User: Fold this.
Amino acid sequence: MKVILTSRVSQLGQIGEVIEVKNGFAKNYLIPNKKAIAFTPNSQSLFEAKRSEFEKANQDDFSAASKLKEKIVGKDVVIIESASDDGRLYGSVSSANIATKANEIAGSKFLTRANVFLKKPIKEIGVYSVTLALHSDVILEVRLIVTRSESEIEALLKADAKANSKNSEEEVVAKKSKKSDADLDIPDDQEVVEEDSKKPAKKAKKKKSEE
Assistant:
């Protein structure tokens, strides 16, 4: 589906660009979030007539996103949910849940689930890294803590720090092991040269003994 971008979209293009995207992406994300309009000869004329309005709206969104980032950056997003003894949630934490909590922290209604990007579904308590795309040019990572109670937060943070430390140590060991293997790996042509260099020495020794 062809659309005209009415806002700058990261990895897609600038305001006014005509691009081809999948129908679902256009109808479920770009158009509802006012980032694009469907391309037709009439809509192109309409866009050009309102181009300055779209550019101003994009600049206003950027300014609002920048101010919102200042209120959120460095703060933890804590969501309390019911879970079993082994930490599995009875439901799951959605993008909408995270957006609502982030809005509470910032005292705003700016964020929606469309601004929240999860690496995987959240179905158990723990510490997670979540991406908030407030604007195409304003993106930040926040720490999300999903817990059964506030008293459990400290234990979850310690467990996460320990897991990260272990992962870092394993990466260092793996890199050292890989480097050692590379240092011990002698090319085939080098082995041939070394063998050839030994042969003349043996012959010379034999000749001397004959004399």
